[in-house]
Structures are given as C-alpha cells and as structure tokens.
Design goal:
371 residues, alpha/beta, Enolase-like, domain 1, TIM Barrel, 7-stranded parallel β-sheet, 4-stranded antiparallel β-sheet, 13 helices, binds 2-succinylbenzoate, binds magnesium ion
Length: 371
C-alpha cells in the first residue's frame, strides 16, 4: 500500500433530538473523518468515534486528534505497510487510545478493499447480504419512550434497546412490556449499578429481556461474573471489552453470555474480527454496537455485522435516526428491518462533500514523502 496523503476533518453536527443517558445528554456530536489517499489517488475513509468529553470511554476528540497527528500518522509514515492488519499490529506498540487507532486502521481497510475491487464486507470475510437493524431509545420518560418505540416499529426496526438506571428501570420496562408483550427488548445500563443493586437487577428477570448491557462498572469483569450467576437475564458486556484478551477473560470467568462488539472501542476491524471469530468458536453471541456515529462508521458497522457470528440485531440504525443529513451518499436506509450490505468496492458509500464541508470545524493534512 502506497499511502501518499492523510486528511483529517473534525466535524460537528446537531442530533435531531437529545440522546439521554444517566451519564449525560448528547445534543451535538463531534467526530473525526479520516481519509487515507494512496499514490494513485484512491481514498479510504474511517471515522474517529470518540466523543467531545470522556463520558463513555477515556478518549475524546482532542485526545484522538493528538494521537493521530503526533503518534499514529508519523508511525505509519515511518513504517510502510502492505496490508491493513499490519497497521493494527503496528499500532499495538501504542497503549489503548483505541478509537484513534480504529479510525485510521478502518480507513486503511476501506482503501485496501477498494484497491482490490471488493466490498469491505467481502474483504473481512462477511457473508450476509443484509443485516438486522435495531434501534436505541434514549428518552427520559416512559411516555416519550413509548412514542419513540411506536415510531421506530413503524419504520421496521426489529428490536428496541432502552437505557436504564436505578431511577428509571422496573417501571419503565414494565410500562413498555404492557404495550409490547412480544417485542425483543434489551436494556443498557452504561454502568449505572453496583453489586448492592443485585436484587433490583434480579427483578428485571420479569421482563424476558434479550439481555442487560453493562450493568456494573465500565472496567469490571469480576463482579459481572458474580452478578451473572444471580440473573436469568443474559449479561452483555460493552464498556468492559476493549480487547481480545478482555473477551477471553470475560468468557473464562462467565462474566457475560453476549458481547457487544464496537470496532472503535477495540481498536479496529482486525481486533473486532478476532473477537468475532473467538466468540463464534465459543458459541458466544455477538452484535454490533453503535456510537451515535456518522455514515462512515455506520458503513463500517454494516460490513462488520455481515460476519456470520453477528446473530443479534445491532445498533445499526438508518442515517435518519440521528441526522437531518448524513455525510455519506446514499444514506443508510432500513427496509423491512434490514440494511442491505453494499457489494460495491470498499465501504460502498460515497462522501456527501457538501455536507462534510458545511459541518467541518477543522481540517488537517499530512503528506507522506515519496519513498
Ligand atoms: O452504550 O451502547 C452504548 C451511544 C453512544 C455511546 C455508547 C452507547 C450508545 C448507544 C447507542 O447506546 C448507539 C447508537 O445507536 O448509535
Ligand atoms: Mg452500551
């Protein structure tokens, strides 16, 4: 791979409606669009999915930008690679900062697939032609949750995820279950509980949830293994899983029965695929998590979710779930609860240049010298 030029655009876009969790409310989303261009002028795209503040993981847009411009891009410039997996291995010499690494690594995967005239899905071993679509309701009351659920079910989404915390759990889920006795529902706690809340969490077994996502601390694996023994509802880990080794440990300890894979959180597609392959072998169900992302990361998620082990509908919603106008063209659409996996080269979506330009706060450019 002959990388000649890398461009970064820090963008910002308002959400159509506020996204509430017990950790705070997101109304405006910043992100980093990463374009890797080779010496023939072919471009691959990735997206840095860290948020403006470190509420979900420790990374932020600014720490990602620092890692990209001062560490990862220079590393790549000094160590030419022939395959995206080599980028992932090269970045292993840097601790954590997974979202910064993933954004750059995934742009290289897109470029690699385009150079080989294959879809990103095919280039990572995907087999599904369509992926099942789920959606997140992040409202702050039962009535607004019910309103959103009704709308999303009309739009065809196959399962609903709701955010829970000790102030809004049993009664919220009870209210939803009364209206929708059969609906596949999962609950995401984003670490709102401790083991002291075990009885509270056991009560949620009443609702036949698909899973409860990340009930305990964001870096815990041990306490989840104690909790899982008490619950009928399967635990799914999100924040606790930042690497393949975390997955191995969590499975060995019985800390969860399901894993939420986000390529950004684990450092890119290479690590995400290793996790997928291991879970498939161990018969642990996986699904693709979302990051309130723009279209480029959405496109990468679609390719990832086309791998055979992704058997549970992911947080793979349409562009219009969050955005008035996305930065890709065409936008991601959900039809009959499914998103079609593109079969055109790379991520299979083009860039909406006008939208990219009007949302850009800052642009940076890094030219590589000819070798
Ligand atoms: O915990 O899964 C999460 C959004 C941002 C950060 C973390 C999470 C989420 C979501 C929804 O729950 C994601 C989406 O649909 O994009
Ligand atoms: Mg989550």
């Amino acid at each position: 791979m002959n990388i000649a030029h890398i461009k970064l655009n820090v963008i910002s876009m308002p959400l159509k409606s506020p996204f509430h969790t017990h950790l705070g409310t997101v109304t405006e989303r910043e992100g980093i669009i990463i374009e890797v261009i080779d010496s023939d002028g072919v471009s691959g795209y990735g997206e840095g999915v860290a948020f403006s503040t470190p509420w979900y993981t420790e990374e932020t847009v600014k720490t990602s930008l620092h890692l990209l411009e001062d560490i990862l891009i220079p590393l790549l410039r000094n160590n030419p690679i022939t395959h995206p997996e080599e980028a992932a291995i090269l970045f292993n010499s840097i601790r954590r900062n997974n979202m910064a690494k993933a954004g750059l690594e995934m742009a290289i995967w897109d470029l690699h697939a385009k150079r080989n005239s294959v879809s990103l899905s095919a280039s990572i071993g995907g087999s599904r032609r369509k992926v099942a679509s789920g959606v997140v309701v992040a409202a702050n009351s039962l009535s607004s949750s019910l309103k959103q659920i009704e709308k999303y079910l009309e739009e065809g989404y196959q399962r609903i995820k709701v955010k829970i915390n000790p102030q809004q759990d049993y009664s919220l889920l009870d209210g939803i279950r009364r209206h929708y006795p059969e609906l596949p529902i999962m609950a995401d706690a984003n670490s709102a509980y401790t083991l002291k809340d075990t009885e509270r969490l056991k009560a949620l077994d009443d609702f036949n949830l698909l899973m409860i996502e990340q009930p305990l601390a964001s870096d815990d694996i041990i306490q989840h293994s104690l909790l899982q023994k008490e619950l009928k509802t399967p635990i799914c880990l999100d924040e606790s899983i930042v690497s393949f080794v975390d997955v191995k440990n969590a499975i060995d300890l019985g800390s969860c029965k399901i894993i939420n894979i986000k390529a950004g959180r684990v450092g890119g597609l290479y690590e995400a695929k290793r996790i997928h392959d291991y879970c498939l072998e161990k018969k642990i169900a996986v699904w693709c998590g979302g990051m309130i992302e723009f279209g480029i990361s959405r496109a990468h998620n679609i390719a990832l979710a086309s791998l055979p082990g992704f058997t549970i509908p992911g947080d793979i919603s349409a562009s219009n779930r969050f955005w008035e106008e996305d930065i890709i063209t065409p936008e991601v659409k959900v039809e009959n609860g499914l998103v079609t996996v593109p079969d055109t080269p790379g991520i299979g979506f083009g860039i909406n240049k006008k939208r990219l330009k009007e949302t850009t706060l800052l642009e940076k450019s890094f030219k590589f010298e000819k070798k």
